[in-house]
Each structure stands twice: as structure tokens, then as C-alpha cells.
Amino acid sequence: MPVRTPRKPKPPPAFTGERADGASIAALHRQAEHCTRCDLYKDATQLVFGEGPPHAPVVLVGEQPGDREDEAGKPFVGPAGRLLDECLEQAGVDRALCYVTNAVKHFKFERRGKRRLHARPNAGEIQRCAWWLAAEIELLEPRLIVALGATALYALMGRSVGLTQERGRIVKTVNGTPLLVTVHPSYLLRIRDRAEAQAARQAFVEDLERVASFLGEGEERNAPRVAVE
Q1: Domain locations in the chain?
Q2: What residue stretches are annotated with the Uracil-DNA glycosylase-like domain (predicted)?
């Protein structure tokens, strides 16, 4: 009877070893402006690349730009972005230390009359756009990545990690970078019941508090030791 060789698990889309080359985030952004790796560029208004300090210790990865982001050309400027900013502040995380980006850089939508409704990117679109996400992470070398929602988690961890099971925990990517798993802030906006929405927001803030704790622990480890007489 022939012996089957077990298949090696596929690496996560962002860590396949294939990535764009750029000397800086700004240079990478300029390259991405001409991206045609998937068809989403055809209908989107413009590319929405990541933004933040060039050596940000924290990288927040969402799913894709929404309608507001597509028009502005900037990530997380719509309702979900404003909620994220509020929750980061409540959790004690300095927003100025964060680089924000998305797994997919073009807005995918369905038209309903004059409205453009969000449509979830498929696996192929996520895999092709991971080319840019991988390069962002390579250049930034963050101390912590935060996966906001299932699409970001798939781009960064593949199918080996589930959102529900690992939410609120810090796992490691295949390149060794710690990664915090949590929901996307847009999830909170879809909850209609007020009490449920408040509880979900508090749980999200508690997840983000792990970012502040992680950074604080790092500062303590790197602080110079003072001799005690």
C-alpha cells in the first residue's frame, strides 16, 4: 500500500516569502499606487495604504477600506476608525504609536442604488494583497501586530488560528512577531441592542488594554537598571 506524504500546511498569505521591495513605507506606497494584482482596483476610487510612524511599535491590521476611506484615501477615517480611536484612548494606548493598515488596500463593494455596500474580500484577493502587507511588516518591524477581525487574522495566520478561540490572546506569527487577536470595530457598530453593544465595546477595550500592557512590559525590560544602595 503506498504511503502518503502529509501535505505541509500552507503559510499564511502575508508570510509566503513573496513581498514587494521598498526602501521605505513612502516608497512602498508609491509602488502600490499602480497595483493591479487583483481586480479590485478597477472599481475603487483609489488605493488606501497604511499610515503611521515609520518605526511604529504597533501595527493594527483591519480588513479593507470602507466607503469613507475610499473617498479620502486614508485608512480608518470612517465610523469604525473613530470608534477604534476612542477605544484605544480608553485602553491607554497612544494612537500616535500605531501604524494602521488593512489586509486589502482597495474598497470592495456592491452597488445598491447610489449606495456602495461593503463586500467581504475573497481568499484570492487577500492573498494577492498580502504582497503589500508583508512588505509593510518587514519594513516596520513592529513589536506587536493587532489583527482586527477574521480577514486580517487569515492574512496574518492563515487558517491555523480561529478568531473566536484566540480572541484576546497573543500568539506568534510564523516570523516570530507577537500578534494580538481581536474583533474589527465595525462589528461593534452592527450591534443593535444597546446593552449588548456596551458590553461588546468594553470587551474590545479590554482586548486593547493588552497592547498597553505589552508595550509597558517591553519598556520595563529595556529600561536601564539602577543600582540600589
Answers
A1: 22-216
A2: 49-209
pLDDT at 19 over 60: yes
Q: Which CATH architecture has domain 22-216?
A: 3-Layer(aba) Sandwich (3.40)
18: left (phi over 0), alpha (psi -120 to 50) or beta: beta
Distances (CA, A) of 133 to 83, 97, 141, 223: 23, 18, 12, 31
* Other beta carbons within 10 Å of 8: 6
For 48, residues 6+ apart whose C-beta sits below 8 A from its C-beta are 65, 69, 70, 73, 74, 75, 102, 105, 106, 107
Give the β-pairing of 178-182 and 58-62. unpaired
- Residues near 12 by beta carbon (within 8 Å), at least 6 away in sequence: 130, 154, 155, 156, 157, 158, 160, 173, 174
Angular region, 113: left φ>0, alpha ψ -120 to 50, beta rest: left
